[in-house]
Amino acid sequence: MFAGKTTALLQRVQAEMDLGRSVMLIKSNKDTRYGTDSVVTHDGTRLPCWALPNLSSFSQKLGAVAYDKVDVIGIDEAQFFGDLYDFCRKAADHDGKTVIVAGLDGDYLRRTFGSVLDIVPLADSVTKLTARCNVCGKRAHFTLRKTEETQTELIGGSDVYMPVCRQHYVSGQVVIEATRAVLKSQKVFDDSYVEGVTIANQ
């Protein structure tokens, strides 16, 4: 996160528009941080988009005639689309579309996230972007989650995540796990202490 994926996507899309090509942007309807009708960068740059639960519904919602006229399809937050591979393969191979995809390839635990890595074999080119570590300023290849939530899909910004280098990812995970263990044991202690107190009316 914070590597400029959406910025790069919008720059590519704008370049295609400047060449006179018809462009449509899609993002997941799960991402409502900056509204549902635009793809928006962290610094506020925006372009209108379709916010959809899946990609397979795009051509139907747009209509066959309008879909045929589209030259370029940009997809933001691609990791949230379960049908990413099938859509990209059909759009590029069979429908003749240029498909530009921006998304995370891994989650905060450094496991694959969604189908982004699955489409690499379909791609003409792949650009992996990195941010800067919030701790030391080195290249940040990983994302550290700062909250206690453990579900894979947790949409948020700098309030939830921070980009970190390998060293600070590993040390950060150790600190987070230790803090959770202390808080959990403190809660158990507090709960058992409260259960042992009897309050009597005088």
Automatic annotation (TrEMBL):
Source organism superkingdom: Eukaryota
EC primary class: transferase
Catalysed reactions listed for this entry: thymidine + ATP = dTMP + ADP + H(+)
Presence of keyword Transferase: yes
SUPFAM superfamilies associated with the record: Glucocorticoid receptor-like (DNA-binding domain), P-loop containing nucleoside triphosphate hydrolases
This protein's name: Thymidine kinase
Keywords: ATP-binding, DNA synthesis, Kinase, Metal-binding, Nucleotide-binding, Transferase, Zinc
Organism: Papaver somniferum (Opium poppy)
Family: Belongs to the thymidine kinase family.
Active site: E77 (proton acceptor)
InterPro entries: P-loop_NTPase, Thymidine_kinase, Thymidine_kinase_CS
Gene Ontology molecular function: ATP binding; identical protein binding; metal ion binding; thymidine kinase activity
One example of a Gene Ontology biological process annotation: thymidine metabolic process
Residues annotated to bind substrate: Y161
PROSITE patterns registered for this protein in UniProt: TK_CELLULAR_TYPE
UniProt-listed Enzyme Commission number(s): 2.7.1.21
